[in-house]
Amino acid sequence: MSWLRNLYNRIKLEIAYRKKLKELRKRDPFIYK
Amino acid sequence: MIILVAGGDSHIWGSELKDSPHGGVNGYSRNTFPALLYDNYSCVAYPGIGNKEIAQRVINACDHNFNCDSHNIVIVCWSWPTRDKEINSDTCILKLQDYLDSHQIPYLFTCVDNCIITNNPEIKWDKWFMFPAGKEADETCSPRGFYQWTIENKYSMGVDGHPLEDAHLDAAELIKEKFNELVKKFI
After folding, report:
1. Are the C-beta atoms of residues B108 and B178 closer than 8 Å to each other?
2. Could you report the per-residue pLDDT of A1-33, keeping only the tens digit for each?
3. CA-based nearest distance B97→chain A, Å
4. Is residue A16 less than 8 Å (CB to CB) from chain B?
5. DSSP string covering B87-141, please?
6. What is the pTM of this model?
7. Residue of B10, B85, B115 with shortest CB distance to A30
8. Residues of chain A positioned with their CB less than 8 A from the CB of B10
9. % pLDDT > 90, chain B
10. Cβ A24–B85 below 8 Å, yes or no?
């Protein structure tokens, strides 16, 4: 079952990364618009 | 001959400044804060580019100047890391830092937004100039990037949102001391 836990953790990290990227993009007013 | 090479995005190109007539060859402004620091000036910034391209353009310009028997000094205003779809720009900052150190080129880094700052110990933060932190509750309470500093100090902005001449003039005045300390003493 460890492969399932690893997969879950990788997906969780990827979602957190994308969320952070989306938040940071809002700081660039010249691209985000 | 010594040339000041400036890298960055639209802020260093000088978008919306009166003397930046177009986005084509040599259409950059001579009234941005790096241009006001040194007369023999070459701008390799361009509007909308990300930090990977900023680093590469500076390296290309330094190589070109070196081949023409000119010496370089460099100032870079890093843009938002998200333009390269990254949450930080450590890799390209380190790439340019290593290039400049290995070629013994004096340099000064700054940024448009302090979101680029990380706790990476390999980056030589003493070679950076940061604009002073805000004092009001609604201002950034840590040292700021150029864009944050201009917005929060309510400098005049162009219709597309770029800081105008007065902000660049004051920024050049603020950065002058660090520029002289890090860069001009090598001349």
Report:
1. yes
2. 789 999 999 999 999 999 999 999 999 999 854
3. 24
4. no
5. S--HHHHHHHHHHHHHTT--EEEEES-GGG----TTS-GGGB--BPPP-STTS-S
6. 0.93
7. B10
8. 30
9. 84
10. no
pLDDT tens, B14-46?
999 999 877 777 789 999 999 999 999 999 999
**What does the block give as tokens for B54?**
């900023």
The predicted structure's pLDDT at residue B184: 66
CB B155 within 8 A of CB B161: no
Domain count, chain A: 1
Domain boundaries, chain B: 2-186
The whole-angstrom separation of Cα B21 and Cα B99 is 32
Task: Look up the ipTM and state it.
Answer: 0.81
The CATH fold of domain B2-186: Rossmann fold (3.40.50)
Query: And the tokens for B66?
Result: 């070196």
A18 contacts chain B (CB < 8 A):
no
Q: Which residue of A has its CA nearest to B49?
A: A31
